[in-house]
């Protein structure tokens, strides 16, 4: 496993930030909203198809291949007031602070019972090897370089919907701690078009609460093996009513909201029920079904599949 370096930085207390294999259901709507494209953003249209998902048990895509340039992973502890937050941060091969063309950022959430180390762990059962997936995808030319931020959300994540734009723990963590820290310390693009949020299992709920609930901050939302339980679906509709009913919501999704789950995933029925809610409100979404369970074999394949969809469109999916 690649060596991990450790860095600790103390943030100022006042640092805050303003502000079927596929189902695609776009209602009418206008152009993109908020944080317009940077000069380096390539023009593209809203993705309407998913790249093929790899078969169950595939391994080569996250192998440590000889000759493939390695990205770096830092373990950072962010201190803010009396609290501290640990995060793993991946920078791609050739990352440069001086490069004029800054990098987009994927925020990648772990599942329940895990922490920020799982997405880069080499453990076959519950390790994600995300840095190797990224290194190989870059070497194959499938994706453009990006920074990937993997925070510890174990103290704030739950299974219940929260009020979008509110001050619950996870929304506050991303808005007031993670995004300001990353944008102050890494050469990244500081606008919503260049921020994506993905998560597995309980991290998929983080993606809904923090990503779909704050489309002023994020333009891409990906949920792996997740979705609302039956006890929370009405609450989701109630809390997210303004977003679900807003005709401009699809214009703020630069990639359709992605939900993937294996047929034998314990969250498969949650995924289908959540997609039904999205479809009822006309929210654009991409749905991946496949052979697989609620495990890292599935979640690694979801990450591999969705990486090429990220940061290729800045126009929104409202039309």
Quickly list its features:
single chain; 319 residues; alpha/beta; Rossmann fold; nine-stranded mixed β-sheet; 8 helices; 9 strands; 24% helix; globular; disordered N terminus
Short note summarizing the structure:
With 319 residues, the chain is of the alpha/beta class. The chain is 24% helix and 18% strand.
How are the SSEs ordered, and which strands pair?
Blueprint: E1 5-11, E2 72-80, E3 83-91, E4 105-109, H1 130-139, E5 147-151, H2 169-185, E6 195-200, H3 202-212, E7 220-224, H4 233-239, H5 241-245, H6 249-252, E8 257-262, H7 268-280, E9 285-290, H8 296-306
Parallel strand pairs: 1-2, 4-5, 4-6, 6-7, 7-8, 8-9
Antiparallel strand pairs: 2-3, 3-5
Task: Explain what the structure shows.
This protein is an alpha/beta fold. It has a single domain, classed as Alpha/Beta hydrolase fold, catalytic domain (Rossmann fold). Helices cover 24% and strands 18% of the residues. The protein is built from 8 helices and 9 strands. Strands 1-2-3-5-4-6-7-8-9 form a 9-stranded mixed beta sheet, with helices on both faces. It is globular, with a radius of gyration of 18 Å. The protein starts with a strand and ends in a 13-residue tail after the last helix. Mean pLDDT is 87; it is low at 1-43.
What portion of residues is helical?
A: 10-25%
Strand content: 15-25%
Following the backbone from N to C, one meets helices and strands in this order, namely EEEEHEHEHEHHHEHEH
First-residue to last-residue Cα separation: 45 Å
Give the mean pLDDT.
Answer: 87
Please name the CATH topology.
Answer: Rossmann fold
Structural class: alpha/beta
Strand order, sheet with most strands: 1-2-3-5-4-6-7-8-9
């Amino acid at each position: 496993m690649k060596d991990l370096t450790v860095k600790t930085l103390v943030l100022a207390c006042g640092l805050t930030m303003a502000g079927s294999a596929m189902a695609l259901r776009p209602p009418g709507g206008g152009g993109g909203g908020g944080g317009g494209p940077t000069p380096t953003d390539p023009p593209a249209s809203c993705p309407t198809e998913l790249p093929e998902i790899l078969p169950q048990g595939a391994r080569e895509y996250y192998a440590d291949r000889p000759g493939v340039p390695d990205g770096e992973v830092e373990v950072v502890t962010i201190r803010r007031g009396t609290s501290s937050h640990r995060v793993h941060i991946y920078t791609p091969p050739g990352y440069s602070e001086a490069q004029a063309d800054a990098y987009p950022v994927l925020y990648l959430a772990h599942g329940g019972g895990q922490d920020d180390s799982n997405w880069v762990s080499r453990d076959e059962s519950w390790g994600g090897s995300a840095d190797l997936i990224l290194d190989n995808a870059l070497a194959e030319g499938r994706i453009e370089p990006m920074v990937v931020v993997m925070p510890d959300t174990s103290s704030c994540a739950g299974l219940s919907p929260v009020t979008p734009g509110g001050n619950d723990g996870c929304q506050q963590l991303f808005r007031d701690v993670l995004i300001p820290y990353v944008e102050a310390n890494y050469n990244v693009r500081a606008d919503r078009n260049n921020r994506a949020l993905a998560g597995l299992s309980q991290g998929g709920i983080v993606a809904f609460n923090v990503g779909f609930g704050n489309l002023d901050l994020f333009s891409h939302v990906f949920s792996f093996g997740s979705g609302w339980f039956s006890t929370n679906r009405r609450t989701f509709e109630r809390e997210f009513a303004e977003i679900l009913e807003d005709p401009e919501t699809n214009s703020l999704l630069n990639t359709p909201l992605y939900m993937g789950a294996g047929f034998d995933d314990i969250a498969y029925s949650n995924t289908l029920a959540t997609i039904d809610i999205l479809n009822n409100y006309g929210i654009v979404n991409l749905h991946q079904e496949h052979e697989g369970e609620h495990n890292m074999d599935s979640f690694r394949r979801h990450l591999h599949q969705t990486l090429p969809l990220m940061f290729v469109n800045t126009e929104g999916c409202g039309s």
